[in-house]
Specification:
The chain has helices at residues 6-14, 24-36, 48-55, 59-71, 90-109, 116-134, 138-153, 159-176, 182-201, 205-231; strands spanning 75-78, 82-85. With 232 residues, it is mostly helical. It folds into 2 domains: 6-85, Orthogonal Bundle (Arc Repressor Mutant, subunit A), CATH 1.10.10.10; 90-231, GntR ligand-binding domain-like (Four Helix Bundle (Hemerythrin (Met), subunit A)), CATH 1.20.120. The two termini are 29 Å apart.
């Protein structure tokens, strides 16, 4: 582990987000966001020394942040080896999609009472993905996709569901790393995301719900197949 590791440079840039009174929760927020953005892939060893220097925080603060993220199933602590970004299993992926159906499809059923700005937030994430794709920033397309699904969940107007979904998308991003060709994986979902957005904008919530159900089933099948091929 050296100071030139890409994730160390990312965290050094995040130092300005913290201050001398930073709590472990704020450090955990930074690490979680880097996971969601794909900057901390599964299996990455998070050296306490390197991470602490990058963020300019104490080892005690960092250890508490690690404990929080272990509890969220984003990190794992291996005795005598250290802390690592978690590697998901097929069972994890299937359970995540089971959870997503409950959260996202349920949120669309509540979309009739959503404010116009909440629908606009869904549209904005599709536009962000389109822009990133045009510039061939496929990691950023994946991030916009995560935010799209968070915006879908936000249609339920529930802070508790938003918090659960934030954890779900962080775990899910760990699953996406198994896809060796990010463009082939992410690009078709831009079209599907736009289709869902168009239905929501027209108030066709039942059709949006059905499209999302199909969408999630297809995405789950792709990931599960990739995991099983990798295990052979």
């Amino acid at each position: 582990m050296t100071a030139t590791d890409p994730w160390v440079e990312l965290l050094t840039g995040d130092r300005s987000l913290l201050d001398r009174t930073s709590t472990a929760e704020r450090v955990a927020d930074v690490l979680r966001q880097r996971i969601i953005e794909g900057g901390l892939p599964p299996g990455t060893r998070l050296s306490e020394g390197s991470a602490g220097r990058a963020l300019s925080v104490s080892r005690n603060t960092l250890r508490e942040a690690f404990r929080l993220l272990v509890h969220e199933r984003l990190l794992v602590h291996e005795f005598h080896r250290g802390v690592f970004v978690r590697v998901l299993s097929v069972d994890d992926v299937q359970d995540l999609y089971r959870t997503r159906r409950l959260l996202e499809v349920g949120a669309i059923r509540c979309a009739g009472t959503a404010a116009p700005e909440q629908i606009a937030a869904v549209v904005a994430e599709v536009q962000a993905a389109v822009q990133a794709a045009a510039e061939e920033r496929w990691l950023d397309v994946g991030t916009a996709n995560m935010r799209f699904h968070q915006a879908i969940t936000a249609l339920a107007c529930s802070p508790r569901l938003d918090e659960i979904m934030r954890q779900v998308v962080a775990e899910l991003r760990l699953g996406f790393h198994v896809m060796s060709r990010p463009r082939e994986f992410h690009e078709p979902y831009i079209v599907l995301n736009r289709g869902i957005t168009d239905l929501l904008s027209r108030g066709e919530f039942g059709e949006a719900e059905r499209l999302l159900e199909t969408y999630l089933s297809e995405a789950e099948a792709q990931l599960v197949q990739a995991y099983r091929q990798m295990a052979r």
